[in-house]
Amino acid sequence: MKIPFVNPGLQYKGLREEILSRFDRISLTGNYVLGEEVKEFERNFADFCGTSFALGVGNGSDALSFSLLGLGVKSGDEVITAPNSFVASAWTIANIGAKPVFVDVGCDFNIDPSLIQKAITPKTKAIMPVHLTGRVADMEAINKIAQENNLLVVEDAAQAVGASYKSKKSGSFGDAGCFSLHPLKNLHVHGDGGIITTNNEDLYNRALKMRNHGLKNRNECEFWGWNSRLDEIQASIANLKLSYLNKWNDRFRELANYYIKELSDYIEVPSIKEFEKPIFHRFIIQHNNRDDLKFFLEEKGVMTAINYPIPLHLHEASRQYGYKIGDFPMAEKQAKRILSLPIYPELEDSQAKYVVECIKKFLKV
Amino acid sequence: MATYGRQVSNRGPVGFNRSNQAATSQVEQLARQLADQIIREREQAQARQRLGRIYTPFDPTDDILPNNVETVTRGLFAGNTGSLTTMFTSSNLTATQKTYFQDIFSTGDPKLNSSANPELSIAYGHFGGSGSIDLTGNLNNDTPTRAIYKQYAQLLLNPNDKKFTFNGSDSDQIYVLNFNRARYKEKLDPGNFELTLSQLSGSVATTILQNSFHTGSNVKLAGTGTFVQIIDDSSVTSGGGVSEAGLVYNLISGSIDEGTDIYLPTTPVHYGLLYPQHGLAILNADSLDVPFPSGVNFESVTQSLVTGDNATKLFCALSSSDAITPNTKAIVPVHWTGLICDMDSIRDIADRHNLSIVEDACHAINAKRNDKTAGSIGDTACFSMHPLKNLNVWGDGGIIVTNNKELHDKLVLLRNHGLRDRDICDVFAYNSRLDTLQAIVGNHYIKKIDHITDMRIKNAHFYDKKLLGISQIQIPSRFPEVKQVFHLYCIRVSARDDLQKYLIDNGVDAKVHYPIPMHLQPAAKDFGYSEGDFPHTEKLCKEVLSLPVHEFITEEQMNFTVQKIKEFYS
């Protein structure tokens, strides 16, 4: 049996008629940039997350950059974040001239709040927790630290659309929440896209101009801004898919629970607390012979991935900050042991069962 | 004034004693013989000269060509050029010479390039002698700057006039631009003189031809721009006229566009005087230098104790007048409306200053100049594929072209998080990728771009023809060497805003690209520009109007537009 790691084409198959008709409708108007579809998606998405505002942008990276900048983080500041995320997380901080200050993670792959206080310096301006794998970081603890130290909180919720923590949705905890709509995400468009959520009207108004050249209106430019807009066609697709998201996220959880139930006795699987409702953008198991396991599964036709094999502080791009091996033992240990299993709503029960069987075969249980 | 000439006796050669009559007659005889001989020889020589000359009578039928008028235009500078953009000082000048003047050459330092052409000299003069020390190293009245001020005052002012007067007030300090005597007589034409000066930051060492110059204090220019353009007022106001020293005009802020139009700010600033018959421009240093705070002596403001420093300051202001400073890294020419800039000239400037060129070719897909497309001369050219562009996709998209493999590889990294491969990040970088879907659209349209371009050019030419002769409309120049692709069809019109409203009310989607120039946007406030800095641009912003020119418009629609324009003006 061949089981691809991801398969976005399957989702399109189910929505083909609806997407094509939307594509056709927008193309006939010729209004491809910042039209009604973007506005509608922003309203829907803000409602979905439980925030006052949402703002569509070109991609998740820019969502983070605009949020940090719009909230006043500037060159020379420090921003605390996790070292095990995708490289874009660090870039958004480095991009504005600030320094990414990494803090090690816990067993849940998210930033360990008990280590944050030590990393705070007079230059620290914000904490940027990453809701990795679709699981919300410990926002109660993080917000408390932020409040005590007068820091901003920007949630990197790129992987966590719809995930909740104590009955609140990701993107509604911090000063801003930032989402990616990249094709591999639980809610995705057919190209690059991103969206910011916030309750801060000033940030919203500023980011509104940032994404569109800094223009106040057609002719007046308040500041030199970016060009990073969510395409009208992509917003329309996102609108359509948002209506299916809860259903899809339920299926993610169903598959995750199946993996946990079948594998927890034999291999390290995520342990979920009762107050959290992850969306399992990634389902990650851990094993000391990770590379052998990955190779074994590939032989069996089960494609897996490693998210991510090199922690952020050990990339060439991080050299300027002077980090070294051993700085973040948990993140470094996980990087050697983690393996992401195939998980997507279209994955059939029989396929999930096959994945489990193969893993058990490798473990000889 | 006394003159001392030779005293000559009218009775004979000098020095002989006339008391010895006999001897005298012998001597007189010899002298007369000698004199006769000399006269004879001179007459013979003149006759020989006459014999060698050929006289031909003037024949009006052959020698006059009827109705043949030729304009003789010769540039002020070497090689017959009218403008001087690259300048070199001379390493041949001695330190003493430099305290008086700096010679300026056009094609290189004469020490390194013996064929370099001298174009002008720059000198700084001060009425009281400030701005230099005397040649013995002491500060007193007997200094080069004092000598210079007095020399030029003597040459140009009335006998009782001791100081130069600029726009009604005396100035103690002047800069002198002294143009090469061999050339200026015919070509330093009033009404045709434009000078660009840049503002220099204080006390920086500017590297010019491997020589570090201490530039002293600011050459501070009125207005907040980084450079100022200066013209003479001979053709624009009643200022100037004839002085004791011949023609003289005021030098004021303004610019000459394409050698014809004069642009003046509302209140021109006076910078100096132009004496075209002497080949001299006298600049009022007070208007170029920082106003000195009370209690501070002038020397401490000008930092002028460095030998020849003040003249060098002005040289720096002149030579970096094309807005290039030591911090300049790149030139971004914009191929506005699809008209490719003069890239050969821009490349020439960029090469001289070691700058990169990034072509903003967003309007210029498929455009050419001398058969070279956008992107063939710059280090990169950047195209937008926004839905309004000639080659568009159905959302946002852009594309970069380059011939530089190394840059290409770097850009591949930069657009995708700096990822060398899926897992290794060389540099934290952007996420800015052209969507596959949009690339499909782009691939489809690129096959049609020749047709799209042809249609737009055809439509533009249609408008050109139909609009010709409407006196309120100015159609921009068209250039035979340029394939202009008309992303926009822009014309200059009078009563622009009313015309635009009239057209929109009649269903014609006329637009303005753009009503506010970039330097006057709120976003530009930190750069300190102000109104009047770019008079041509500012004028255009008030006059430009774009008419629909896309590939789907019909002749009927264009005729309707033209008809409505004519209606508006009638």
Strands of chain A, total number: 12
Q: State Rg of chain A.
A: 20 Å
Low-pLDDT runs of 5+ residues of chain A are none
Task: Tell how many strands the DSSP assignment of chain B holds.
Answer: 26
Major sheet summary line of chain A: 7 strands, mixed
Q: Quickly give the structural class of chain B.
A: alpha+beta
Which word captures the global form of chain B? Answer: elongated
Oligomer: heterodimer
Count of helical regions of chain A: 11
Distance between the termini of chain A: 20 Å
Radius of gyration of chain B: 33 Å
Identify the most extensive interface between protein chains.
A-B, 45 and 32 residues
Order the strands across the largest sheet of chain A as they lie in space: 1-9-8-5-4-2-3
Describe this structure in words.
The complex is a heterodimer of chains A (365) and B (570). Chain A has 365 residues and is of the alpha/beta class. In chain A, the strands form 3 sheets. Chain A has a 7-stranded mixed beta sheet with strand order 1-9-8-5-4-2-3, with helices on both faces. Chain A starts with 7 loop residues before the first helix and ends with a helix. Chain A contains 11 helices and 12 strands. Chain A has helices at 8-29, 36-49, 60-70, 87-95, 116-119, 139-149, 201-210, 232-263, 290-299, 329-337, 349-363, and strands at 53-57, 78-81, 99-102, 124-128, 152-156, 164-165, 168-169, 176-180, 194-198, 276-277, 283-286, 338-341. In chain B, strands 1, 2, 3, 6, 7, 10, 11, 12, 15 and 16 form a 10-stranded antiparallel beta sheet that branches. The chains are: A alpha/beta (365), B alpha+beta (570). The A-B interface holds A 26-27, 30, 32-33, 58-62, 86-88, 90-91, 94-95, 190-192, 214, 216, 219-225, 227-229, 231-234, 306, 308-310, 312, 315-318 and B 386-387, 394-396, 417-419, 423-433, 435-438, 512, 514-516, 518, 521-524.
